[in-house]
Amino acid sequence: MYCLRSEPELSRAEQILRSARRQKVIQANVTLLGMEGDSDLQFLLQGGDLLKVLSPSWKKTRYFRLMEDCKTIWRESKRTFKDSQTFSLDDISSVRLGRQSEGLRKNTEDQVEGRCFSIMFKSRRKNLDLIASSEEEAKQWFNSLQKVLSNRNNLNIQQKTEHWISSCLRKADKNKDDKMTQSELKNFLRLINIKVDDDYAEMLFQKCDKSKSGHLSGEEIEHFYDLLTHREEIDVIYGAYAKTTGFMSSQNLVDFLKKEQREKATLADAHNIIQKHEPDENAKEKKLLSKDGFLIYMHYPETLVLKPDHREVYQDMSQPLNRYFISSSHNTYLMEDQLSGPSSTEAYVRALLKSCRCVELDVWDGSDNEPVIYHGYTLTSKILFRDAIKSIKEYAFKTSDYPVILSLENHCSVEQQEVMAHHLSSILGSALVTSPLGEGMPTDFPSPEELKGKFLIKGKRLNKLEASFAPEAAEADDADVTEEDESNNEDEDEQKEDEKRKKLKLAKELSGMVVYCKSVHFHSFEDARQNLSFYEMSSFKEQKALALAEESANSFIRHNVDKLSRIYPAGSRTDSSNYNPVPLWNAGCQLVALNFQTTCTDMDVNQGRFLVNGKSGYILKPAFLRDVDTEFDPITLTRGDWLKHKTLHVLVVSAQQLPKMNNKKFSFVDPLVKVQVYGVPADVAERQTVAVENNGFNPAWNESFQFDVYVPDLALVRFTIEDHDSTSGNEFIGQYTLPFNSLNMGYRQVPLLNKNGDVLSSAGLFVHIMVLDAE
């Protein structure tokens, strides 16, 4: 490790002054993080040398340290500072100790295991694989980064906003003198995404320049900050209920919570809010809530648009597995497209951390008798089956404790199937379900609760499960079964189907691991009802499934009451694009598999469906999709218990701190908001606001929309913000999707997710939601 060097061109006095300013900046950010005197933070601020690993032969020393903003990591390679050599802590998804990345396992030896750690980034950015000089130092880096990341994640929206604005103020202060000229003020406004004309900038500057010195400093900058962050909409709401000499009394707060937020609030609840959020000790002692306290409260998680209890597991998890929608992935091993993209164990990790509960493994014979995973007959790269299973075991239950289904697309010889069975057994151990739970032949699926921490295999089986309980029953004549290759040839003419099926030899060891998810060919709903056992399931290509969902919806729904159905994208989607999963959920399909590596509206909607219930990856289907005698049809919408006509009122109030969509110096966001409802065809609707020109910092709309929702149990609501562009088309800024029944009523903050599904840390949308029974 080594300390920062002083720039030789600076005088001693300048060096001392710069050091003092740096310490002042650090102290402000340390205080914000609540880490005063913390040794882990000091370790990161000092920094040190680490070995960066790119290949077995490319390992080079780089110097890393946390910058003064306590948000940015700077790395140095050639003793020169470059902006391109920095990255934000907000870009980090996780830090892993040991050789846990694919790169470290491939490019380093076992003996450096304890000295290794990896920084994993959000989106498609490559991981940063590093080696410390000792095991102790590696643990220090790991623990320190984990602590700072945790503290940053625990900041509320207001604190993140303050941090972001402070960083922009420092960046605008070009000469680092802690003062702001009018030119620097305009530069700052541009940084935070506001375009103003010269007259307005001058007026704002003169209003704050109380000393008439030609620059802002100290309290003048604080006054400018207060003017900038003032939220008129919050003032209006607060003023309507602050009836006690300019403050909200406990009873005023109860009235607000009951009337506006539609919460069952008591005086005790109001006292707790005041105790937790009121910054003024005198007001707190009198059980009053000031405007500042109210603003702080309105930025906390309890005021988010998602119901607080729906963030945890709130549904009954003791029902049979087939009664749930299950988050499912297609070609999980791919990082990009289906033709030449890379395969990676990291793709499994990312899907599992997004609460995916059914992953696909496309397995083929590999060299040295080791099965490999890749997209057959393409140029996609290969990974070892063994490595994929190890990664799946490591990360399967990080986000959710509920069972993971391994969907095997088996193209291997009997010899390598035996190797597959060995790896599954030796790596997964007792967590792998290899026989029915309980005693005797089961008649129904076990529940997600009973299967917590367990793995199920979906694949081909030599015989019926019943044969396991009848020793005298004859084994299959040979080890041949008909293979339905879901990955290839799925769009060929139906008359060639018989020619394309081929006999696949099955290893008994692998066959015996298939218990509750035996793959079979689908002939018809009548055939399935007459001849298939509950554990025998079919996979449908998207075109076939969508046709059934439209033309035979009720039959498909009844089929899915008893059986599991898996839907997968068409083979023609070589770019790994996706399809709309909603019509398949409407038909009761449990495993609607999407390409998790592809960012798109369909994936956003999928993540919105599984946002709730503790992000468990399991959502209990509505009662009318679990009833064997159901008459529900999403197309015709005949009368029944599913019809619960609601009117959704949405007031789009304002947004805060929207990011620029490009790095052009004089580019500003012109935001507009779209509100969309997904569900049965009668519920599908979209409304949008006008665009606010040149203001991504605090745009306001105050536009109201109304939606009729007939089947709320299947509906989802999506809020999207776009940058309006009439010439080249609107550009996506952020979105948030959630189930209709999970909407919190009243004035609510809507978090915004970027195209990769990661939270935009300081950005948000402010709305008012009301759901009423339709007359």
UniProtKB/TrEMBL annotation:
Coiled coil start-end: none
GO cellular component: cytoplasm; plasma membrane
Domain EF-hand span(s) in chain numbering: 160-195, 196-231
Example of a GO MF term: calcium ion binding
Domain PI-PLC Y-box: 510-626
Domain of life: Eukaryota
Positions of substrate binding: K458, K460, S539, R566
PROSITE patterns per the UniProt record, alphabetical: C2 (PS50004), EF_HAND_1 (PS00018), EF_HAND_2 (PS50222), PH_DOMAIN (PS50003), PIPLC_X_DOMAIN (PS50007), PIPLC_Y_DOMAIN (PS50008)
UniProt keyword terms in alphabetical order: Calcium, Cytoplasm, Glycoprotein, Hydrolase, Lipid degradation, Lipid metabolism, Membrane, Metal-binding, Repeat, Transducer
UniProt: Ca(2+) 5 binding residues: D723, D725
Membrane topology: Peripheral membrane protein
InterPro entries according to UniProt: C2_dom, C2_domain_sf, EF-hand-dom_pair, EF_Hand_1_Ca_BS, EF_hand_dom, PH-like_dom_sf, PH_domain, PI-PLC_fam
Gene Ontology BP terms: intracellular signal transduction; lipid catabolic process
Cofactor remark: Binds 3 Ca(2+) ions per subunit. Two of the Ca(2+) ions are bound to the C2 domain.
Catalytic residues of the enzyme: H330, H375
Residue stretches making up the C2 domain: 629-754
A family per Pfam: PI-PLC-X
The name this protein goes by in its record: Phosphoinositide phospholipase C
Organism: Cyclopterus lumpus (Lumpsucker)
